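Problem 12. The chain below contains 848 residues. Write out its predicted structure in token notation.
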Amino acid sequence: MIPTATYRIQFRNGMTFDRAAALVPYLKRLGISHLYASPIFTATSGSTHGYDVTDANEIDPSIGGREGFDRLAKTLKDAGLGLILDIVPNHMATSLENGWWRDVVEHGEKSRYARHFDIDWTRRLTLPFLGDTFEAVVESGDITIKPDPQTGKPAFAYFDTFYPLTPESWQGREAQVLALTDKAALEQLHECQPYRLMSWRDAPRSLSFRRFFEVTGLVGMRVEDDAVFDDTHRLILELVHSGAVDGLRIDHVDGLADPKRYVEKLRQKAGPDCYITVEKILGKGEHLPDDWPISGTTGYEFIASLSEVLVDDEQLDQLRHVYESVVGKPVDMKAELRDAKLLMVDRNFEGEFTRLLHLALAIAEADNVALDEPTLRAALRELLIAFPVYRTYGTLQGMPAEGQALLAKIVAKVKASEFAPDEDALDFITRILLGDVSAAAADTAGHFRTRFQQLTGPLMAKSVEDTLFFRQSMGLALNEVGAEPVQRAFSLDRFHKEMKTRLERQPDAISSTSTHDTKRGEDARARLYTLTEAPQMWDECVARWRQMNQTKVVFLNDGTAPRGVDTWMLYQALAGVWPATLHPQDEAGLKALEERFLAFVEKALREAKLRTDWVDSNEAYENVLRDYARHMLDPANQTFLQDFHDGLQPFVRAGLVNSLTQTVIKLAAPGVPDIYQGSEALNFSLVDPDNRRDPDFATLERMLDDDELPNFTVQENWLTGQVKQLVIARVLHLRQQKPMLFRRGDYLPLSATGKRADNVIAFARVHDEDALIVIAPRLVFGALHGGPELPNTELWTQTEIPLPERLAHRRYRNILSGKEILLTDHIDLNSVDSCSSVLLQQVNSSES
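Solution.
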């Protein structure tokens, strides 16, 4: 069954199955059809997210176990709601709590699970979890031999972790081994193990297993192997076949060796009725392969599409100009992107890159291709950093036509660039990817192709989302998962085209505006979009605030801290996260915000990898930035706080209108709208883990009243998010009543004329005798002098929307006000009874 609307709940952090079950009546009142659950399988102790799975065939006892899950499933079914599970086929935790991994650590290649994990068994398994080299920690006495508290067997004891010894190294001489203290003897015993304990710092260059992105705590799984698929999906499929689970969300599908074969097998095993979506980031103009038997993506591209509506393209250059004046020079985003990708290739993914290079050298030797290592290295490096999308979808057999076309386009671009490598070397790597090698090298080429494709995704993600977007802060709203890294124009026409394509290609995909992975909550993003409408005002605000807090600027050995570009980012981030109802005198509110903001500041600075890093932190620089951020939110800093609060109000008001506009679009445009927990009201969260906090469900439940229509005229209803919540409830119930209108209804772009034509987005959904006209404000910063509840007479004056014949001369009901209206061949917006978004449902004769 295709959902009409999903509600994402993050389990853990206090959320259990029983708590979720208690929310079911609220979700039903809200109009949700399916609860959309984060991973529920047993994860490492204390996991806050559940993606670090330790047992794929057990439901985590910490959130209620199987019994709690069964209670939740029954509650959902009794209420008529479905359940979608987030599953993690790509990786598991490299924790000794993971029984499979522990068995591999103890028995090495002899373990039954040795081929479950993506491990290079041409060498010992690397375990990069020491603070220094093995020899150094032995010398310091931090590693000893002790009985494992769980098994009683001899183990290397490193603080609270016990690495099991392989039986061959101690059986028959247990007491002797346990008595070992000699450093040389300990090192010799270590050499006898199927693993090599090493420093975490060596992980980027020396790992023997494929990790998830840069996370050495997560090891890749070989689900392309049928036995591994069966072992990792046993419980998942049982829950689907039992009827408890109606849909599956596949985490990071691009990390799999063969995504197409995986989704085909999952579809075949789960059955035709299981709703399946994949987490995949699509570039502009990129589409999912047509032959994947799934409903679509989890919606990052939908977030990117919304920016086409809410960014003021005409003033974007002005925002760029004032930002560059703060930076002190023009920003070349293409060059910045290249620098970020080079850092990832040369440092963070050095091991993965080197492994690819060695495979290419082996193929060159097998096929008698005379290319030396430096030449091949340069060509491989340039091809990797030129990739504009996450990956191609070649298999062990070769590259499909779409992949061949993309590869040819990229190679041509590399050859024409100023960084063009040796042409013969680039052509040789291209032939490997296409499978144009000798029979003797075919297997190695297939392996190279798989590894190459599994690297381009993490390389893109870490370069763009986790480096570039923290380095370049012209407009933080534009630095979102799924967004384009290089600046471009924004277009309302492009949005309409993308929605028509969405209806054609993936009408049942999830439409997201917030997730557990987005860089900021949807309402923070909606507010920060407004900076593009008033760049000069924002620049003046930042200049004034910098002057007020100038005493906290410090001169360090590596330069001034914070620099102007740092403060630009800090004030913008604070503007996005500032709660709509927070006042400068609220000491408790400021303290709560400070705790969240300081965590963000540390992450933002380290992800940027400029003056500090996760690998080598610059404590002096970080301390100055933290002190500056604390000062910003110090209740004693009232001059600044009052000015910040007052200066922010125009952006707050316009942001609330943007918030409702993007919500209405999500609810009515092609796709299945997802409500991320708590985002039915206002979500001003920062990057994770801030965006995974437990919402105040008690308040949300009190706010929702089925009998009330949204009251747009009361400012408090906007500031608390009640207007947004009630609009969501109204439209979601309509989606349940008219599922085919939203799932298969035509998408008709509508154009406004007159004084406010540029401040309107309008479209219609039409299916048989049903029609819905959607009208929402955009780019209204300059029109909101008082608040978001201003009268429609001021906002919509002298503005009309011509109607095509299939919509004209019919009676409609405004579902947000309840009033009916007879439309002619146009809509006079000044006469429509609303001061914000308008949703007009056609009244059929049977409904009159």
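Discussion. The chain has a mean pLDDT of 95. Students who got a different answer should revisit the alignment rule from Section 12.3.
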